[in-house]
Amino acid sequence: MKIQYRLLIGILLLVANSHRIACKPIRDSGSVIEINVLDYPFMNEIANFILTTDTDNLFPQYNKLPFEAEYFITIKNPGEGRNSKKENTLFNEKGSYSICISLAIGFEPYLFKVNGVNFHAYGNLVPYFDSCNIKKNDIKRYPANEDSFWHYFWYFEVKDGKVVDAVYFYEPVDNGFDQYDVYDLIHKEYIPYKVWDAKIHPTK
């Protein structure tokens, strides 16, 4: 009986490890993993903010995106620096995070969808990434995104699983944010970047 039990445990471990290996991308292989994710209310809210941002009217002097955008998500846990290149990032439903959303340029190995919005991530979001869906051998490329990557941003502050700050920002020239405005998506008003940054990051 013990032998059968150990054999069963061994088979289950092998299947579990095979699943994890199948879900782990090979860096620089040109492949992308489509991931099923858990249902986090704040991620649904972030996706809805992106979908409903009236980019044409908020910054009408700038050209409309000539493509269907996909987005790169960067997550910073409290007390950490920029961690977009970490292999694993703790990302819990009731956690607190600073989240930046920018345009994806097609080099991030994980792809997931929230409310119809496609997000790309560099590392595994634990435990948010629930399971693999499909592994694609050809990662999408967006030449137009490469020209616009540094100019379109959403910033979100999440406190204990709730979005407490949400802004949209367009930087016409990649020369630093300080001279531009952000648009507060919650209070529906423009704020100088310096004022907003001092409020969100008072100890920086």
Short descriptors:
single chain, 204 residues, two-stranded parallel sheet, alpha+beta, 34% strand, ten-stranded mixed sheet, 25% helix, 5 helices
In short:
Helices cover 25% and strands 34% of the residues.
What does this protein look like?
Helices cover 25% and strands 34% of the residues. By secondary structure, the chain is α+β, with helices and mostly antiparallel strands. The protein has a 10-stranded mixed sheet with strand order 8-1-5-6-2-4-9-10-11-12, sandwiched between helices. A hairpin with a 4-residue loop joins strand 11 and strand 12. The longest helix has 22 residues. The chain is globular, with a radius of gyration of 19 Å.
Largest beta-sheet details: 10 strands, mixed
- The end-to-end distance, rounded to whole angstroms, is 61 Å
Q: What order do the helices and strands follow?
A: HEHHEEEEEEEHEEEEH
Going by helix content, strand content and strand pairing, the class is: alpha+beta
Give the overall form.
globular
| Total beta-strand segments | 12
Q: β content, as a range?
A: 25-35%
Q: Oligomeric status of the shown chains?
A: single chain
Number of helices: 5
Helix content: 25-40%
Q: If you compute it from the alpha carbons, what radius of gyration comes out, rounded to the nearest whole angstrom?
A: 19 Å
Strand ordering within the main sheet? 8-1-5-6-2-4-9-10-11-12
Poorly predicted regions are 1-22
Compute the average pLDDT. 76
Topology:
Elements: H1 2-23, E1 32-37, H2 41-52, H3 55-58, E2 71-76, E3 88-91, E4 97-103, E5 110-114, E6 117-121, E7 124-127, E8 129-136, H4 143-148, E9 152-159, E10 162-170, E11 181-184, E12 189-192, H5 193-200
Parallel strand pairs: 1-5, 2-6, 3-7
Antiparallel strand pairs: 1-8, 2-4, 4-9, 5-6, 9-10, 10-11, 11-12
